[in-house]
Design a protein that fits this description.
The protein is α+β, with helices and mostly antiparallel strands. It has a domain at 56-217: NADH Oxidase, CATH 3.40.109. 37% of the residues lie in helices and 13% in strands. The strands form two sheets. Strands 1-2-6-5 form a four-stranded antiparallel beta sheet, with helices on one face. Strand 3 and strand 4 form a beta hairpin. The longest helix has 20 residues, at 90-109. 22% of the residues are buried. It binds flavin mononucleotide.
Length: 246
Amino acid sequence: MSELYEHPYPSAALAAEHPFVEYHAPAFDAEEMAARAAAFYELMESRRSVRLFSDEPVDASLIEQAIMTASTAPSGAHKQPWTFVATSSAEVKAAIRAAAEEEEKVNYLENRMNDEWQEALAPIGTDWHKEFLEVAPWIVVLFEQRYEQRPDGERRKNYYVKESCGIAAGMFIAALHNMGLATLTHTPSPMAFLTKTLGRPENERPFVLFPIGRPLPGVQVPDLARKPLEDVMVRVDHLPNEDKGV
Ligand SMILES: Cc1cc2nc3c(=O)[nH]c(=O)nc-3n(C[C@H](O)[C@H](O)[C@H](O)COP(=O)(O)O)c2cc1C
């Protein structure tokens, strides 16, 4: 297959034991790669979290498609340890808003958030009001599956659950943005109430809540700047001196 590898994957023994298929990855020439890279960056750079949504309905098929996209995320041992719980019910959204505002009132009005946290949030200007949880046509709550609960009652371990759910969440946000829907990565803290409100089983814990819809026309967002490449990337082209015995 390739002379590059002394130990090819899968080994003959592995392939005899488990099924493998040839993977046909999308491929582009150099020019197209650069064009696609720039276009995707531009698209993602235009994403913003919004806190005012239009109440215009959004077709359930779009939400399903975004969840299917998120669910293509890599996950520890391919356990896909996530459940996306979606609701467009006015009753359920109202219950989520009421419970979220209860918790956020304690955070903001009774100083459950320390000074440093409040200082970091000041330019964003969030407070305990969460009206958008009722106005947005959809709420999707991503639950992490702390362990796998099989239908026969058996429990199995999941691996790297938070990392896996974090990646799936990012892909979900990208999928929504790509189809012209807006969301807010929302973590009303603590979020345990969502397990009860949404009737989820014992093995699931809320990870992030996403109100989803079209942005309200004229919506404003904080005038934030994103870090430049040199602040988020370090290139390493040789080992540190001590590792070379210098
Ligand atoms: C894990 C996480 C939790 C967040 N929780 C909240 C939240 O509870 N409420 C809120 O208004 N924004 C929340 N945000 C949104 C951030 O404030 C927002 O992403 C950040 O200000 C950058 O803005 P942008 O998303 O428009 O780039 C959260 C973001 C992340 C990644």
